[in-house]
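Lab notebook, bench 4. Still working through the backlog of constructs that have no structural model yet. Next entry is a single chain of 296 residues. Request: give me the structure tokens for it.
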Amino acid sequence: MQILKMISSSKVFPKTHIFNLLLTFLSLHSIDQAIALPDDIEMDRYMLSVTSYAEEGRLDKVEFYLEKIEALLIEPPAEYYYYQAKVLNKKGDMQKEREALEKYVSLAGKEAKYYKQALVAITNIEETATPKKHLTSQSKQAALLKAVREDKESSDAEYANNLKQLYLTNSFNDALIRHINEILATNAYTGTKFKPSKTNNGGVVYSIKITPNKEILTLRNDKNITPERMSTEKLKVFGQNHFLNYECNYTKSHCWIKKPDNYSKWIQLGYDQTAAKAVSKALSRLILSLQHNETH
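Model written out:
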């Protein structure tokens, strides 16, 4: 306030300038004096926004305010978990969606507004996941091989949908990675015409991961050596030709996926032309997806 008195009594500043300075000072002073709402009131405010945006179907805004509630670090109301389940449903994360719904009905009780809807949603998740969850390794492999053999006649959209259904995910990239790794694991190079089994799981096994820089990290695990030897190699996808080649040699009992930049040997698997073709196709689509920054 002393500053204000000095400015107002000064003969240096014109009156209009003094008036503007006073307005600016008072505005800033009122902002500084604003009192932050207690966390429980902020919680109520955010939940009102969550409910409103959920009714409009704007789940992006729902997620935004749910994150604000989470940042308060106090226990949210039961309805928080119901709306969280809606966001997780859109993302295709059925496991976490079910956990959120179960927490909602446990906290809210039978008289809750969305009690019945939550129970129906839990049942739907269970019915969707159970057939896949209880697949034996043999039947899962049969389903995998069927998808591999039938995708030659399918469009890109059908190929993507088939993989996402097979691996219960809404992320095409995630489905591609799991598809590639499962084929590589079941077709490891053993040096013979025989594939790895539960009793004989040796051989050279390849797998892939995606780095934060969107490079393809290849992991080579030689199980024929004790202790097992692991080596890695990175491939930058940007600027690469996404069409991949492969070659199979019956005499040497192996197939090689070729690198897209210089066509040198990249990923080895046991002799199986169908499996090599499937890995090559999935890797090609993954490279293209990463180049386009796709996250679906």
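Notes after review: Residues 39-133 form a domain with the Serine Threonine Protein Phosphatase 5, Tetratricopeptide repeat fold (CATH 1.25.40.10). The chain has a mean pLDDT of 80. Flag for follow-up if needed.
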